[in-house]
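Show me any protein, keeping tokens residue-aligned.
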Amino acid sequence: MDDAAEAPDAPRATPSRLARFLGSDLWLNFRRSKLAIGAFAVTLLMFGLAFAAPWISPQNPYDPAQLELLNSNLPPLWNPDGQSPFLLGTDDQGRDVLSAVLYGLRLSLIVGMLGVVVSGFLGIGLGLVAGYFGGALDTVIMRVADVQLTFPAILIALVVDGVAKASFGSALDTNATILLIVVSIGLSFWVQYARTVRSSVMVERSKDYVQAARLIGLSSPVIMVRHVLPNVTGPVFVIATINLALAIITEATLSFLGTGLPETMPSLGTLIRTGNRFLFSGEWWVVAFPGIALAGLVLAINLLGDWLRDALNPKLQ
């Protein structure tokens, strides 16, 4: 008999995570969707421009030493009265609109992402506890969530922001104000995570692997975090993607209303509020370009979230 025929099969190399992802249905679905590819490209471009702002912006809009009042109210460069290097014109302080948009985009993204982290951490934690333990604890958490759903998210953020500013007043510096906005957004959007995770955990807790983990003596926190949580994260990614757009819109709304970030560190909402004063005086570029940047960013993230929701829905496969 041939010795080669009797030799055991050589062990196969375990494919890497990247290789498994490139061979997954999710990647195949993404490659087939031109809308998802376009939305991802725009989102990636926005993130890249925002976090490269200190290196690609013509000026630092936060540095008063770089501002010249003689350069105020200049139109975009393609206008006959435009001047280099102010591609998108300047505002009433001589601040380059392109630089302000890039820095404002970065600040809006930072606040939005931190708000999603806070709301996700709070909602996922409460959803895990409510779904795993059930009983009175589940009832209390869900009733609080039901009560919060009766109020618009922006109203909750306004209340939290107003109470904090009334309590601390001038003691809030710029960093504290940013932290306050992040907490306000986080407290506004945790309910969606909690309700979704709770429903998934209630299904998972009765499965065999959870019962086996209990039999070998693992504690409830270990079972929830190491075994149950990885099996309920699919819908969480969809919620987080869509909530990122909502968090950015909420921050922009708060700043537009004058209760968000200060003008010394303008986000897109602050820039729109500032430029709105000059809209009817003919200086349209001061409000138009921040508005376009905000609309484009939110639209791209929403389209990406919609595709991710459909791609992860087994009923649509």
Q: What stands out?
A: The chain has one domain: 34-59+70-316. The domain at 34-59+70-316 is CATH 1.10.3720.10 (MetI-like fold). The radius of gyration is 25 Å. DSSP finds 14 helices and no strands in the chain.
